[in-house]
Design a protein that fits this description.
Helix content: 25-40%
Radius of gyration: 14 Å
Number of helices: 5
Order of helices and strands: EHEHEEHEHEEH
Oligomer: single chain
Largest sheet: 7 strands, parallel
Distance between the termini: 20 Å
Strand content: 15-25%
Number of strands: 7
CATH architecture: 3-Layer(aba) Sandwich
Length: 163
């Protein structure tokens, strides 16, 4: 199983701690983690995966090595696609966890929701941990993005272990 963990390059300490915990929890369950490969949430999740002796793949926007890439990545895919790499990231995953929020993260959540809409209900989990809350024009939550209370809950939801 491959889970994409998305989040902002500029994140809070709380978001970094949550991303690290998510990465470690996924790694110890044997899940391959995908991320954007940069700083912030991406670096924190990569460090968490590395601490759990797992595999983390960075789906990078450029084609050249970048000093902002996380040193904890196991593998990199240099796409040369810029922000369009978000489609590759989400398209390569079996579930998505968004930690925190930025415009890029919102893009990844939107692509994940489009992907989920093309699959049987519940077969492509999209989880938000302290991130964007998507509502319709009447202020009602849009079905599909499930909010998690903490890292354990986010991982359980992504892996279909939450009841």
């Amino acid at each position: 199983m491959q889970v994409a963990v998305c989040g902002p390059a500029e994140c809070t300490e709380a978001e970094a701690r949550a991303a690290f915990a998510v990465g470690r929890l996924l790694a110890v369950r044997g899940v391959t983690v995908l991320c954007g490969g940069g700083p912030g949430v991406m670096a924190a999740v990569a460090a968490g995966v590395r601490s759990g002796h797992g595999t983390v793949v960075g789906i990078l926007p450029g084609i050249e090595a970048n000093p902002r890439e996380s040193p904890d990545l196991s593998l990199t895919v240099r796409t040369g696609l810029g922000q369009a790499r978000n489609v590759v990231l989400v398209g390569s995953a079996d579930a998505v966890i968004a930690v925190g929020g930025s415009w890029g993260t919102l893009s990844e959540v939107a692509h994940a929701m489009r992907r989920a809409a093309d699959r049987p209900p519940g077969s492509f989990p999209v989880v938000s941990l302290g991130g964007w809350r998507v509502v319709d024009h009447d202020g009602r939550p849009v079905p599909g993005v499930v909010e998690a209370s903490d890292a354990d809950h986010a991982v359980a939801l992504a892996l279909g272990e939450a009841g």
